[in-house]
Amino acid sequence: MKNYLTKQTATVGRQAIFVQSESQKPLSSDLAFLPTALSQLHRLHCYPPLSLLRDLLFLLRKQETLQDNAPLQPLLAHQGIQKLRDLEWPIAARLGLAALLLHDIPFPNWHPPTQLTPTHLRQHLNIALHGETKAPQAPSPPIAALQTAADNIDERLLSLLSLLGKEAVATEPSLPLRLAQQVSQLPPLTPQQRKLLNIKLRLDSGSRAQGSGIGTEHAGVTFHGSLSALLPSQLALPRPIFYNRHYRNELLYRARTGQEPPRLRPTILVLDISPSCFGPVEALTRLAAHIIATSLQQAQLPVVLITTDPLNTVQTLEQPAQLLAIWTQRSLNEVPIKRTLSVAQKLRENLHEGHIAPAILLLTHTQFGNGQHLSPPKGLRALFVQYPNPSQIRPPFARYCERWESIANGQLTIFEDILGRLVG
Fold first, then answer.
1. How far apart are CA 358 and CA 118, in angstroms?
2. Which helix (H) or strand (E) segment is 313 a member of?
3. E-only strand ranges, 168-266
4. Are 192 and 411 in contact (CB under 8 A)?
């Protein structure tokens, strides 16, 4: 064990010591994370030299400027490396990126002794790195192998990383490597969509819940409602402006108060994965489901996913990795609407105990359920995507919803507000 630790510390210019001193100071910033980082890579059966791990973690830092003679300087111009740097992740999350690049590269001379567990490695390496400085004895980095690994950084892998998020990867650096096999099932997200993954739902805690149905009193305005609730002052607008606001879903309607303030609540997400949603529709419905599920996870509230396949697959979304189900499930069958709503209603009854009233949120296209007569479950809400016609038509299924919103692909700037109104 001592020989291994001596060999590793020498690569970063430290003379290993093996006895902890009472006056021992914290490690310098460039070394402090290395014991944890190397031990976590060992759990993934990845055994790089310590100097390579250190240099790679710094290379993947967006703000890092490498000197011309830096060992990994040849990698700086690689497009895949640049994309990873552009994520601007903290060092704990960058370890997950380093694992992606290092895992398939053999390091035959750097395997630890069998008796040195990852936990013991972290403890002993933290002590060993407190030795005196010396001239580094670092091996040459495997530039060609790293370039080959970086060639695999494509839009789908970046989508996976964005879906997982830096917080989840920092907590569990093995996630990107473990889930990389599912990359082929993911849609490539645009940079704008990846940016939207990080939005936080905004709930107006200072006002009461709004809707366009029957209520007790008027309270503020909302962006949808019946013709009788339209604010009369807008009728004085010039016709072109009025029609333009109608087209962009910007007309204002009187809203009525509900009985409780807006707040996050346990939610059953009913995601339409039928062929009617393939393409532009699912780009928004899946994005909305992901954002809402992430917010509920962070709030430690239950969130359950039901997909509209013939079996109505049900999955509780408790961990960040489980969010991939939102993006990978797909069906070629028509939606069993009555069965799907029945499953959602039963789940809502089970979630209701011990929590505020759960919501059922349907994410689908505007013609969902057209022509059918249904008995909707309580707490039903819906997000309808307007496609191919972006004009704001009233979806037929909206009459079954206590709250609903519609959006077209060109309205991403108000996406955050729409989701906030739906889930609050």
1. 43
2. none
3. 210-211, 218-222, 253-257
4. no
Domain 267-423 - what CATH class? alpha beta
What is the distance between the alpha carbons of residues 178 and 168, in angstroms, rounded to a whole number?
13
Q: What is the largest CA-CA distance in the chain?
A: 85
* Alpha-carbon 48 to chain mean position: 29
Q: Distance between CA 279 and CA 90 in Å, rounded?
A: 34
The structure tokens 């939102």 sit at: 326
Cα separation, 199 vs 202, whole angstroms: 9
Contact between 266 and 297 under an 8 Å Cβ cutoff? The reply is no
Is residue 217's pLDDT more than 60? no
What region, left, alpha or beta, does residue 220 occupy, with left being phi > 0 and alpha being psi -120 to 50 degrees? Answer: left
Count of C-beta atoms within a 10 Å radius of residue 283: 18
Per-residue pLDDT tens over the stretch 63-99 = 888 888 899 999 999 999 999 999 999 999 999 999 9
Phi-psi region of 300 (alpha: psi -120 to 50; beta: other; left: phi over 0): left
For residue 272, what is the DSSP state?
Answer: -
Amino acid at 260: E
CA atoms of 403 and 44, how far apart (whole Å):
47
* Sequence-separated (6 or more) residues with CB below 8 Å from residue 394: none
Token couple for 258: 């509900």
Q: pTM of the full predicted structure?
A: 0.76
Cα angle 399, 345, 352; round to 5? 115
The burial class, CB within 10 Å (0-12 / 13-18 / 19+), for 175 is: buried
> Which residue has tokens 């989508």?
159
The domain locations on the chain are: 2-185, 210-257, 267-423
CA-wise closest residue to 34 among 130, 133, 139: 130
| Residue-wise pLDDT tens digits, 266-304 | 999 999 999 999 999 999 999 999 999 999 998 889 999
